[in-house]
UniProtKB/TrEMBL annotation:
Keyword Cell cycle: no
UniProt KW keywords: ATP-binding, Cell membrane, Membrane, Nucleotide-binding, Transport
Name of the gene: oppD
Protein name: Stage 0 sporulation protein KD
Annotated Gene Ontology cellular component terms: plasma membrane
Predominant localisation class: membrane
Entry's localization field: Cell inner membrane
An example Gene Ontology molecular-function term: ATP hydrolysis activity
Species assigned in the record: Cognatishimia activa
Membrane topology listed for this record: Peripheral membrane protein
The family this protein is said to belong to: Belongs to the ABC transporter superfamily.
Gene3D superfamilies attached to this UniProt entry: P-loop containing nucleotide triphosphate hydrolases (3.40.50.300)
ABC transporter domain residues: 6-217
Keyword Ribonucleoprotein: no
Length: 217
């Protein structure tokens, strides 16, 4: 058996609030191998998103991760890394997409520029070259009329199209792991099915591991 790409062990996350301590995650463990999908299904409030944010080291200031918790990614415990070291991994080797793409996209910048910027942060290159990569990504995520989309703003697109832009952004640096946190919750049912099919196809073509977080009905 090959080693898992991601293995979380005994993840505990508490939040300190003015009303006391909130025990959001209590000893969660799971693992996912390269190229595999793991579906994490649970009720609203059960700690699915908090766990994903713990993996990405994107927890709120008032969060505390348990001293015995471990988040192994490709053999490294991410909880041991500095913020600078995490920046090398976040958006590069591990990407995340969220349920509401509108809140993740900057409303005042063209979507093409936003995806190009993500590429350039991790792989410095001229803007023109980055935009050519963005166009390829927009084609890959099957955005209709991809060339014209480059210069559009988020509000000029439908919810499903915006989620495709977020997926393009997440794929931009060819991550080993994609965490999709309820990626279809904010979308119409038919669009939900299209996005899930797209994620499945991309997972195969990129040989990515995917953690798919879904709410249980
Ligand atoms: N910054 C915070 N301060 C205090 N409590 C928080 C904070 N962030 C999250 N929580 C709490 O942690 C718990 C788990 O939240 P989380 O968002 O992970 O649930 P979830 O399973 O992803 O739910 P949903 O499916 O509704 O997104 C909730 O009770 C939430 O209120």
């Amino acid at each position: 058996m090959t080693d898992p790409l991601l293995k979380i062990e005994n993840v505990v996350v508490d939040f300190r609030t003015i009303h006391g301590t909130v025990n959001a995650v209590r000893g969660l463990s799971y693992e996912v191998a390269r190229g595999e999908t793991l579906a994490v299904v649970g009720e609203s409030g059960s700690g699915k998103s908090v766990t994903a944010r713990a993996i990405m080291s994107m927890l709120a200031e008032n969060a505390r991760v348990g001293a015995d918790s471990r988040i192994w990614f490709d053999g490294t415990d991410l909880l041991e890394l500095s913020e600078l070291e995490m920046q090398e991994i976040r958006g590069n080797r591990i990407s995340m997409i969220f349920q509401e793409p509108l809140t993740s996209l900057n409303p005042i910048h063209r979507v093409g520029d936003q995806v190009a910027e993500i590429i350039q942060i991790h792989r410095p290159m001229p803007k023109k070259q980055a935009m050519a990569e963005v166009l390829k990504l927009f084609q890959e995520v099957q955005l209709p009329d991809p060339e014209a989309r480059l210069s559009q703003y988020p509000h000029e697109m439908s919810g499903g199209q915006r989620q495709r832009v977020m997926i393009a952004m997440a794929l931009a640096n060819k991550p080993d792991l994609l965490i999709a946190d309820e990626p279809t919750t904010a979308l119409d049912v038919t669009v939900q099915a299209e996005i899930l099919t797209l994620l499945k196809d991309l997972q195969k073509s990129h040989n990515m591991a995917v953690v798919l977080i879904m709410n249980s009905p």
